[in-house]
Design goal:
2 copies of one chain form a homodimer. By secondary structure, the first copy, chain A, is α/β, with parallel strands linked by helices. Chain A has 3 domains: about 5-50, no CATH class; about 60-160 and about 295-325, Rossmann fold; about 165-295 and about 330-355, Response regulator (Rossmann fold, 3-Layer(aba) Sandwich), CATH 3.40.50. Chain A has 13 helices and 13 strands. Chain A has a 7-stranded mixed beta sheet, sandwiched between helices. In chain A, β8, α11 and β9 (about 270-275) form a beta-alpha-beta unit. In chain A, α2 (about 15-25) packs parallel to α7 (about 135-140) and α5 (about 75-90) runs parallel beside α12. The model of chain A is unreliable at about 50-55 (pLDDT under 50).
């Protein structure tokens, strides 16, 4: 006789894997009728829990995984530091897996966890992660997952984020107040919740300032540096080019600066630039770069603390534990008013906690 | 009867763990007499290979580990990308472990590998790794190790490095030719081979240019950003301060720029700055930063390719496979002659492959 899996039961009963798993574990959000039906069927087909999954519940690997799209972005390297501080206190190893923005890799990584390699998972999804059955399946096995930064809304668990909508709103308002009247918004995804929230904040700020929000000002970049260079150069070389630009991803700032240098646009006189970025060099760029700085270290630390809480208290309801930590707007030279004195320019530079 | 381990045999015979392991595996660099003696003793005490080590030899985890001090440095994030390209082609997972410059953590990580979690290890050691018995022990178990960038000379295996001595020599010569006559050299370790080679190149260039090499110009920095800021500020505020500075680690460049800004030193007029760095923002800093750029991606790729070669050919002698890949000197504004025309200044900026 072949071994019956949760997946098989889900298929047979026409229910999701998550529902079956929760029903068998007496989950709080599954109806009594469904629970009865699932249990009766599991009994009838001689279902026994997966031995791997059982070994997982013993939490023996003393290891947690961090699944990230990349580490070149300083947000992620700082978040890792926050995670490791907590893990070290708990005597756990941290394994870092990079998905390199590939859904296929992310799926393969999560499959690897099913063998009991790790006790829990901290995760920031790829730009390609529109389908999430691989996360759903891991979640259904009872391995605690906490999302941070790039979350997957469809999975019922804790999400550690920053105020992305408010941040998008704040930088856009700042550029409008600095005199911009055509603002380009560079993004890397039309689906990632984090990108959608930032662009929604941008659009709302435009509306509130009685400005038109044009789809042509929303610019979708890729993972390829050269492609992005070509695209941004094309946009900034147009006759009706933007006089303000928001880069919603750190790595785009270098490309924007390069393009401006190459086509002779002066920042901030000809064009103002702001970027969502945690890079420490922002303050020493030419000109210094206005940034939305995410609380990267804090987000990593909070996500890890929650994961350990879930590992220690098996009845913890992670769905009720989401946290939003505010970002900071660092106004620097790249976005301040042009044609004013150096002293006044200095005065305009400041740090604002976004609320 | 207790189980006899390689460690026990080593102790009993007064030999190193590595020697015992190699003798039992018929290693090429162990004398016939020693081999005979070790084998006879192993037979007499009923030694059987460690079951973990046996399972390791089956190479079943389909996983390699990368042990790094940090990922904030862009050298490491780029090297990871090179490693992952190869690993993906081979269908392997890559686990990234961060030692955070702590020997204790590095030891704990390597201990974790003894359970057969990974098939092979790519490694860059911490600034604290003066004692290396933990690496020796893992090596003795037959788990292939390839070092890259920060190598451990005492372990007989492949080392993928760049021409650090020549790089130290080239940047120092460049600064001397740009008019500097007092050059400070910032380092993070007096023991790491990579730091020693760079500083040896620096000293040799001074001698060849008939300059005095003073110990007081060698400045040892730490992992603490604030401490480094205070130290660099103190040095650059002295009456007899350096008029040229070499940062042998990427992160120090931001601190140097900040200090110069804060105490009113103009780069390159008052002080010239060069840095060993792979950061993409070097070209857009104020002023753009002269760097020694390591072939990070290539080094990671080469190290991974060698590790897989060792995993596929068990009789491969890794000690004969070390590779040195040259770095590039990118001369930019931060180190060129002061007081010359913008056009001439531009002409002086160039890329040189260091030989």
């Amino acid at each position: 006789m072949s071994i019956i899996t949760i997946k098989q039961i889900a298929r047979d009963l026409g229910l999701s894997i998550a529902t079956i798993s929760k029903a068998l574990r007496d989950g709080h959000d599954i109806g009594e009728e469904t629970k009865k039906r699932v249990r009766a069927y599991a009994l009838s087909v001689n279902y026994t829990p997966n031995p791997y999954a059982s070994s997982l519940r013993k939490r023996k690997s003393k290891t947690i995984a961090v699944v990230l799209p990349e580490v070149t972005d300083s947000f992620f390297s700082k978040a890792i530091n926050g995670i490791e501080v907590v893990a070290q206190m708990k005597g756990y190893h941290v394994l870092i897996y990079l998905s390199h923005e590939s859904l296929l890799r992310e799926q393969s990584i999560l499959k690897d966890f099913q063998s009991g390699r790790v006790d829990g998972v901290l995760m920031s999804i790829t730009t390609e992660t529109e389908c999430n059955s691989h996360i759903q399946e891991l979640h259904a096995r009872g391995i605690p997952i906490v999302f941070f930064d790039r979350v997957c809304n469809e999975i019922d668990t804790a999400k550690i984020t920053t105020n992305d909508f408010e941040s998008g709103y704040a930088v856009t308002s700042h550029l409008l107040e600095s005199g911009c009247n055509k603002i380009g918004f560079l993004t890397i995804s039309n689906c990632l919740p984090i990108c959608m929230k930032r662009s929604a904040g941008y659009k709302k700020a435009l509306i509130d300032h009685h400005m038109e929000s044009k789809e042509s000002d929303m610019i979708l970049c890729s993972n390829n540096e050269e492609e992005n260079y070509t695209l941004i150069k094309k946009i900034l070389s147009q006759k009706k080019r933007p006089n303000g630009i928001i880069a919603s991803v750190e790595k785009l700032s270098t490309t924007i600066y390069q393009v401006c240098k190459d086509i002779g646009l002066q920042i901030p006189n000809d064009i103002k630039v702001v970027c969502f970025s945690n890079q420490s060099t922002a303050a020493i760029l030419n000109p210094s770069l206005t940034t939305v700085t995410q609380p990267a270290f804090e987000m990593g630390k909070t996500a890890a603390a929650l994961l350990f809480k879930a590992l220690e208290k098996t009845n913890l309801d992670l769905t009720k534990e989401s946290v939003i930590i505010p970002s900071t707007l660092h106004i620097r030279e790249s976005s301040v008013l042009a044609g004013i004195s150096k002293t006044k320019n200095k005065l305009l530079q400041k740090e604002i906690l976004i609320s």
